[in-house]
Amino acid sequence: MRRYGKNPDEDDVRVRPNRKGNRPRTNIRPKHEDAAGGFVLTVDRGRLTCLVEDRIVMAMKARELGRKGVVVGDRVAVVGDLSGAKDTLARIVRVEERSSVLRRTADDDDPFERVVVANADQLAIVTALADPEPRPRLIDRCLVAAFDAGLEPLLVLTKSDLASPDKLLESYGSLGVRYVVTSREELADGGAADRVRERLTDRVTAFVGHSGVGKTTLVNALVPDRQRATGHVNAVTGRGRHTTTSALALPLPGGSGWVIDTPGVRSFGLNHIDPSRVIHAFPDLEPGTEGCPRACSHDEADCALDAWVADGHADPQRLYSLRRLLSTRERREGD
Looking at residue 231, what is its pLDDT? Predict the structure, then answer.
């Protein structure tokens, strides 16, 4: 049955009123061309602290971002109240393209990857030489994650007054990883902080390490005007207590760089790692992979790297180090 006849005009058509009195939805979103640029300092329960010019601004994600995550280190576009006054809230409407993304999974069987920090260019792996004992497998995993993300690793060894760093450094010598060795006395008088700070100048550096290694103590020495809570090592378990619960970006004195203190980790899963990207961190070995079979793991009988190294194109220790790192997914971190 035809409701309005064969040729209805506008006056015949009934329009259902909008009871809410608002405008109909549209897929056209504003471009926010006048949005201000911001840098995410920390994230806490849906509230994001951003640096906008020289002001600290609290913000939340705009609805149009959907499920897109925003993490510490992100460069974002912010609109709304940018005064930084108390009880004001701005909106993050866009996340700019990231130059790097450091990820990890809870374990090697977990398919859900977590973004630790964005836009860093250096990863400082903080490890105590004693109290608690160093965990080389965790160091290896952090190195793999750094190489996969395109970050330059920096090994920071603390508490050298309790144990010598020589044995640990020997196992990483062929990797050419830069390192700094510190002691508790040097941290107290500022000498160690100065040496570490030299490695951080004009860079965005993420600090990772398991609890109790002195990571936050080191960050406090680097940025003395922003003290974070520190903990101690449990005498029974030999493990530290989590005192840093969220990542926080802090500017180095004089604006010469950024350090990002991250919560202590007990594990560093590598389920998200593509082994084919790790080889890029070994430019002396990469040309030798041209003869490898497709999807080569670089640790199998047909791998072309064995012949490449045997012909004298690279140091055998470099191939050993590559394969040791690539095998970290098959080994538990405590092994």
Answer: 46
